Amino acid sequence: MTGPALTYVGGFAIAFLGGCAAMAQQLPPPESGDKTMNVRLVNGQVEMRDARDDTPVMLPKGVPLHQPKPASNSATPAISLQEQPNGFDLKYLYDNQSQLEQELGRMRLGVFTIGQQIDFYDFRWTGDMLHPDYANWVAPGYCYPGGVYSPVAVLGNDKYWIGISFHYPYLDYKHDIRMMVVSPGGDAARGEGGRGWLYEYRLSDWGDEVGFGKMAFSGKLPPKTKREYVISVRVVDKSSAWQRTLTPYRNFFRSTYQGVHYERDARPVAAEQIASMETVKPDNPFGFDFHPTKRPDLVGWDFVTSTLNQQTGWERMMVWMPGGAYQYSRDSEWYFTTPWESNGQMQRATEADHGFPRVAGNYKMGLWWSQSLLYSRSRDDLVGMNVNNERMVRTALAELDRAVAAGATMIGLDTFYHRTVPTWMHTQWLNMMRARHPRVTFVTEPITSDLVHRLSPTFLQCWSRRFPAQSEADLYPVKGPHYLADFLLPGHEIWGAYQYLAWSQFHGRQPTLEEVEQHMQSIAEKGFVPTMLTYQNPNTRGGFNAAESWDLTVPEDLRIPREDWKGDIYGINGPLGGNLNAPDRDSGNRNGEGGSGDKALAGAGATRQNAGGGSSSSSASRNSTAGPGAAGGSSSRSASSGQGVGGVSGGTTAKAAGLTPGEVSAAIKRAREMYAKKNQNTSRNAASNQKAPASQESSQAGVPAQPDPR
Model-level pTM? Predict the structure, then answer.
């Protein structure tokens, strides 16, 4: 196997090293400024020293810049080095002129001679600081775009911040990368500088990956194809802001994908749930639990919607399980608003005087789409969404049309997860839904990557990730703002959700409303939208709007001007090109299998908080009007109609969401026809089409393996 071809470009007189025009933005242009780092190639490896005192910052130590995957047909790139005043850029150019697909191997930087214990930002969540010590560090492998927000790393010691970023057009190449910081021993630990740290970008599966360290979609180089990848390294003094080391990535990202493509709403969200998995029974197939005898499938929606309207002091509301508790085993293709078509009482969900439009008149209302990417080809046969399958797209858009017809201007997208469906399909599907309903805001869950976050707000779990919690600190895993989102996408929106199962178990009681408000305040101060999945929602929201955290986390001279925050999604240069339309006819074609569901993450959403503080499944909340548990495991509610939220302007309706009355009627008619066709050989009785899964594990077992994204 021949080694990679290496080129060194000294000085700062070259703006781009070859490649096609489409790749030109990947390699940063030469930068100005005082020279603080001396960089050179030594035996095909990079050496970097402080130009001011010759301190070694990165030494070769036998670590090649590229390694082919063993025992495979691997590509060998041509590698070019471009020196920068405070670092360097490496360009990897692959050229596969063969007739066979090739593996891409891995790229390695090192060794960074910065001591035994380092500072390292963990960008899987919000950017918490870790302090790896090479005496006991077990290196995790983080994958992008499914496991970390951006393909970047920041590490340092008491003298330097070192920023490493990876530039590649993911939406074109359609594969993951795996990132890892390790401390190699052996020869790499000897000599000048002693033992240090190595950073790796893996483009191909190596065979030693496990769990979520394994790439969902490994990279391959098709025949007769050229591809370019760029790694940028920048070093600043520790007294400077670490964000300065990531400006090459921000420039690449925003020049390629622009900024946020939605209007941020900082107001907190009242979280409501109207059904639960634990109350699904043969005589309650939808699991509605507001009242045992006033269920929507029995008497219509009046009781539910009047109860929802009793929330005071809130301007936004998200309703979980609007069509009933999620069903893994089902006949319907989707399970969001399709259950509304099961009988005449349920069909009243879109009626202005009885259904969800009553709620949408008082709040900016959202409906949460459970397992939004899981499509049922038939009972117990769930697969992931495929945007190239017209049948899947057509029926999913019918679900969405019904939700908008009910007045929803926010749609929660549950388990919008990369290992279920690849991120490049996420962006296409979001763009299709946004083109169809441009006034609707979509909220993805769980916390997503920068690629998806630019198109939609996202949902961050702020409650304990350990149950039971071992310490008070476990109850509050989110320590600060989302640093990368603040740096890359000012004007972003992140819902900071908190529920109290672990909290109540740890403290042995339910929180007081004052404690809930304190938690809301803490979440808002970090820049997140408080979304409290509590048994009781406070009756006030004053002072709880999400802060503009980027004004605190990003140095003033690095902040993006407010007028440049937003991208133009419908413009000539926007991702939609100004002319994307969702298909408007149903071909009935069921060919083209989508991605699979992810077995490990096939949950029903955020965990619900019980009145007694015990653990249970499913999602969201109870409000302050909730009463004690009623017979049959459901919760009783006050029968009083209550008062709507006063002083809330701009009530939302289907018309406000972008649908004309004719479009609403057509959408409902089309959805009902689809439902009738799907169920023409089964009873219209709800119980015949719904059944409670025996357990989450058994229902997940039918989810097939991961798809080939190509």
Answer: 0.81
